[in-house]
What we know:
The chain has helices at about 1-25, 30-40, 40-75, 75-95, 100-110, 115-125, 130-155, 165-185, 215-245, 250-300, 305-315, 320-330, 335-365, 380-395, 400-405. By secondary structure, the chain is mainly alpha-helical. The chain is globular and about 60 Å long.
Amino acid sequence: xxxxxxxxxxxxxxxxxxxxxGIALSNPILPKLIDRFVGDLATSASYFGIATTIYxxxxxxxxxxxxxxxxxxxxxxxxxxxxxxxxxxxxxxxxAPNLPTIFLASVVDGITGASVAVVFxxxxxxxxxxxxSQNFGLVGATFGLGWIIGPAVGGWLARGGLxxxxxxxxxxxxxxxxxxxxxxxxxHQVTNRRPFSWAKVNPFASFQLLAKNSKILSLAIVIFCNDxxxxxxxxxxxxxxxxxxxxxxxxxxxxxALLGVMTxxxxxxxxxxxxxxxxxxxxxxxxLSLSLVGYLLYAQAQPNWTIYGIIMLNSLNFVVKPTAQxxxxxxxxxxxxxxxxxxxxxxxxxxxxxxxFVATNLFAYLISSHAxxxxxxIPFILGALLFAIALWFSLNLNFFSExxxx
Length: 406
């Protein structure tokens, strides 16, 4: 049984790796492609925020549905559906003649974007309560490996044209789809499946699952604030470094690849001894504390070589979400893991709706000529504040105890 679980874990991590690599390969390029249609950095930043927000709204609406369907019919069919949508969206990005087509690609990718949520449910299915945090950490390491190769390759491919990385991402995701159909086994046992109910897939009503007790609600807030802070980084990194340091796509790709290397090292090698030494809760608090410092340093980094040291410091952020999600997952039964993954995906999508819209527009405003003061580092200052809020809730997990009893 243990050997079968290990094989299943390897299968799904390889599937996730190919998916993340395709995303990371195109991530540094999309803002620059949008700029080709617009021609102004501040306006391009706003449109990039809009495209990201459209994608997030679609995920927010559809993720509880996909999580509930995976609880009813199994993880594999939903994973295949997601990869099919990702393939189509990359082809749309690659061939887009105008901005509306880019927005359409964002909608398609968001509607079918359940692969990460389903992978987390898959991992929960094959993990014991003692190994969930560690296995979720392997998911983080897989993300890191995808980000090592993807951005560097994407930056290199962009020298042959901004559309080429999207075409390569489409082909890699199509390969991933074929791999999933052939090799990925179903993890959700028939005995653990639950009836489908439309009442349970309302993206707002489904959040009731997070109010079962104070610990679940506080951990959900920790994950929400952490994700929202990370979105401030993701949505503005390309435009921030281009504006402040005039980085090329190659330099952008290398910076993201370094982040991926550090993430993979932390998650694959360091997470287990950190958890053993400090325990899950203190690991979360350590990651949040260093992330707070890292973001404040990002906001004022000068000269540009200091960025690489900050990236290495900030890489410990990636212990926060898998550890918190492992703690949260252990509070619920095997029958609820799919809906939990869907709820957390919706929560993550909500951060992707709010974070990029606020961060890109604040950035655009505070670098414009009519701003009351010049502050290009505002997305990272906002992120540091969010890490501080998450840290407070991690120190006060029972804050909602009395409120939930009412």
